[in-house]
Amino acid sequence: TKHRFVDFLERTSKVSDVTSFSYLHIPLRISQCDITDLGCAFKKVDESVLRQLGLSNGVQVAGLSDGRFRDSGVKNGFIIYSINDSRVSSPEDIEKIHKAIMKGSGDEKVMILRGVYPTGKRGIYAVDLSGTE
């Protein structure tokens, strides 16, 4: 059965294939931490939007709610093109990077997001992942 959040995303966005989302409130266990702590879903960005913004890759933040992304200042619609200097082209890329950060040694675990809003406004956000293990 579909999760209520998936149904909401289908109704409120112009996305027909929501299988590419990483869903809020649907646990994806990764290295003893839950990626849903980020507090959002991710969706692929249409090629025409990427071209318009001068990007070759990116993943858009959608369905933002309480969580680490919002706490860091990220807003809905932000298109992430890199995390910690690694290129981001799919929601799966974000999950892989998150997993690698959480497996790393050291106490400080941070995602440095680089991206742009659909308006063209660029942004850099530091998302603290400490304490999610």
Which short descriptors sum up this protein?
4 helices; 133 residues; two-stranded antiparallel ribbon; six-stranded antiparallel sheet; alpha+beta; 8 strands
Poorly predicted regions are 12-33
Mean pLDDT: 79
Tertiary shape: globular
Topology order in helix (H) and strand (E) letters: HEEEHEHEEHEE
Radius of gyration: 14 Å
Largest sheet: 6 strands, antiparallel
Separation, N- and C-terminal Cα atoms? 29 Å
Give the tally of β-strands: 8
* Computed structural class: alpha+beta
Approximately what portion of the residues adopt beta-strand conformation? 15-25%
Q: Number of helix segments? A: 4
Q: Helix share of residues?
A: 10-25%
What would you say this structure looks like, in words?
By secondary structure, this protein is of the alpha+beta class. It contains four helices and eight strands. The chain has helices at residues 4-12, 47-52, 68-71, 91-103; strands at residues 29-30, 33-34, 41-44, 59-62, 79-83, 86-87, 110-116, 122-128. Strands 3, 4, 5, 6, 7 and 8 form a six-stranded antiparallel sheet that branches. It has a two-stranded antiparallel ribbon with strand order 1-2. The longest helix has 13 residues, at 91-103. It is globular. Mean pLDDT is 79; it is low at 12-33.
